[in-house]
Amino acid sequence: MPIAPNYLAVERSVLECAYAGCNTIWIVCNDDVTPLIRYQVGEMIQDPVYNYRHFEYSKKEFKRPIRIYYVPIKIRDINKRDNLAWSAIHGAKIANKILRKISLHLAPDKFWISWPYGYTDPYLLREARKDLSADHVMISYRDQTVKDNLYLGLTLDMRQIEQLITESKTRSTGMWKDPETRKEKYSVEERFSYRNFTLQQVFETLECANYNRLNVENYYNLDNWPDYCNFLSHNPSIIKPKIFNAAEWNGLGIDEEV
């Protein structure tokens, strides 16, 4: 979904994660659209905080590239619990699992969740970068957050991720009304109810008393055509940041084509 010429909503989310100080960025999307998004976004973005150090003698030595990974939803979760919130939960779990296998020192214990279906200025995360590393933070617009069904970012730790994964099973219907006897099935519409959960329903059990709120003055919903048109009409001057370069890492053991 473009929000400006050659500037996609998913790129805004990537930039938001970069400003938040993420060491890696994980984009959860289906296999059929991954090549398109990867072609546009690339596999790496420079940390914007370290990309514009004009007074350093050797600027390249201070740059910090942030690796971008692409993760699909598991086949067994499709049409069972593959709502938007689950994609973020699944991505965080996979990121922790993969990096933990490399080294326990690399395993992330806190995640910044960004949604491409809502627009806020990604630069605002630059001011809260230190708070994000030390405390829990969620973006708030007019006293509303992701718990009010707005596509606003927040931090989650592994304890919360595990809690939400457990709730995806305990709060959802399955195939059978009584799993032990397996005599009567739910109707097709009633099966696997978690797949239809909204952000508000998924995060309603999340304890937010210890969260610091980052208030924003402007927020636009992008998940439907009227709101999308309203956003474009009120923001004609948005341009794609120069930091995007759609770069890819060189493969190991692969000869370059001449």
Summarize the structure in words.
- There is one protein chain.
- The protein has 258 residues and is α/β, with parallel strands linked by helices.
- It has one domain (2-234): Alpha-Beta Complex (Spore Coat Polysaccharide Biosynthesis Protein SpsA, Chain A).
- Helices cover 31% and strands 16% of the residues.
- It is built from 9 helices and 11 strands.
- It has helices at 9-20, 34-41, 48-51, 84-102, 124-127, 129-134, 158-170, 199-203, 225-234, and strands at residues 2-4, 7-8, 24-28, 44-46, 65-71, 110-113, 118-119, 136-140, 154-157, 211-215, 220-221.
- The strands form 5 sheets. A 3-stranded mixed sheet has the order 3-5-4. The protein has a two-stranded antiparallel sheet with strand order 1-2. It has a two-stranded antiparallel sheet with strand order 6-9.
- Helix 4 packs across helix 7 (158-170).
- The protein is globular.
- The model has no long low-confidence stretch (mean pLDDT 88).
In what order do the strands lie side by side in the largest sheet? 3-5-4
Number of domains: 1
| Overall SS class | alpha/beta
- CATH fold annotation: Spore Coat Polysaccharide Biosynthesis Protein SpsA, Chain A
Please state roughly what percent of the residues sit in beta strands, choosing from under 5%, 5-15%, 15-25%, 25-35%, 35-45% or over 45%: 15-25%
- Integer-rounded radius of gyration: 20 Å
Estimate percent helicity. 25-40%
CATH class type: Alpha Beta
